[in-house]
Amino acid sequence: MKIRPSVANDIPSLQKIADSTGLFPPDLLPEMMGGFLSEGDGNSLWLTCEENGEAIAFCFASAETFAEGTWNMLALAVLPEKQGNGVGRAVVATLERLLQSGGNRVLIVDTSGTESFSGTRRFYLRCGYTQEARIRDFWGPGDDKIVFWKAL
Q: Which position among 31, 50, 78, 87 has the lowest Cβ density within 10 Å, counted as fewest Cβ atoms?
């Protein structure tokens, strides 16, 4: 397994991962990655995890505007058939190391409070995150936003 910064050639594979997980519509990916790929502005980071030369996971994090050294992991997706095998944990650990080596101090993750996201919430707790906040009805009626926090 190899985890590295994403490149433009990864987009079709990452779109398949996004589609297979239902994370977001895959056609949004090229625009979402555009700034990172073309500008390298330092305010966003995309990582691709590959196995045997094929993408199996990705994550996206962005620096929080107006906060010193605080980043938000906005997306983490692992092919369904690769979930539960440590892939997600390895991607998150790599992101944390990269951010920490850049002098950053906090990583947050927002997720849903619905029952269908209970596994996601357990995953972040197992990765050492603390549930820091709950914003009621954020995503929609009955769908709370759960904010996880971790010091880097």
A: 31
How far apart (Å, rounded) are the C-alpha atoms in residues 95 and 98?
A: 5
Q: What is the pTM of this model?
A: 0.91
Distance between CA atoms of residues 46 and 58, nearest Å: 7
DSSP character for 88? H
Fold topology of 2-104: Aminopeptidase (3.40.630)
CA distance 8 to 89: 24
CA 1/CA 55 separation, integer angstroms: 10
> Residue type at 21?
T
In the chain, CATH 3.40.630.30 sits at 2-104
Under a CB-based contact definition with an 8 Å cutoff, are residues 130 and 92 in contact? no
What pLDDT digit, counting tens, does each position of 69-115 carry?
A: 999 999 999 999 999 999 999 999 999 999 999 999 999 999 999 99
